[in-house]
Amino acid sequence: MTGIAFPYAIQRNNSPIETNSVGLYPWWSIAKAVLAAAVLRLAERGAVDLEASYEDWPFSIRQLLNHRAGLKDYASAEYHAAVASGCDAWQPDMLLSRCNARELLYRPAEGWAYSNIGYLFIRRVIEMVTRCDLNAALAELIFAPLGMRSAFIASTREDLGRSAWGNAADYDPRWVYHGLLLGTPGDAVRFLQGLLDGKLLSARMLDTMLASYHVADEIPGRPWQQAGYGLGLMIGRMRGVGRAIGHSGGGPGSVSALYAFPDREDRAIVSVFAEGHGDALAEEAAVERITKQ
Fold first, then answer.
1. Is this prediction's pTM over 0.85?
2. Whole-number percent of the chain with pLDDT over 70
3. Which CATH number describes the domain made up of 8-291?
């Protein structure tokens, strides 16, 4: 990996953010941390009850946030075939039907399974409570308070075409049902730094977000030595750098990683974006970036 250039941004000890790109990149599942922070802000306002059931489903909003609701993922063979064909995204209700979403993998709170469907529901919670579309809701709850001027939800192929890598595959960003967030590497770091510094949430609510459910020990092929999940945050330990808090993401053609490393003396926060496949690509690049002298 050494010698490969990745778009990145890094902040050490609350110093000014260093970046090698001001282009827009797909954040993919980094957006889950953003959506979770938005829900927790609404909870602090009394507009969302984390323990309440989601509509008529047998799980709570909290269980959606930490992937303990029992929902399946939507990345089925049929889903991938539809994406590869270049067609328009299915309507959300069609997705839920084709994935048999009502057939849970386990009873809520009795297991853990990563679910993008769960974050489609989180998106719906935000839009229902705020009475805004997701982009407007996040602008008020997250982007404006943190000075994130580049970030927005891509809703058309043309939106995705504005990214630094373009949209050569003619991908419909609505296939990312929780919302495909675009933004600069610097704004990704700005989000995580602001979140962890208490600019969005009270200390009590931030502790709630950081309470981690153990998912796995070492993950083969990736830098994780121990992996857990909080509310919208991947939390664990990575080889050589200690604790890691943030999120990885990936979609057609690219991957992303955004992590804070609080055990390091410089308390580095880094975002990395890469063309290619596999979460390990961006995660390893993030570790290499902060350990590079």
1. yes
2. 98
3. 3.40.710.10
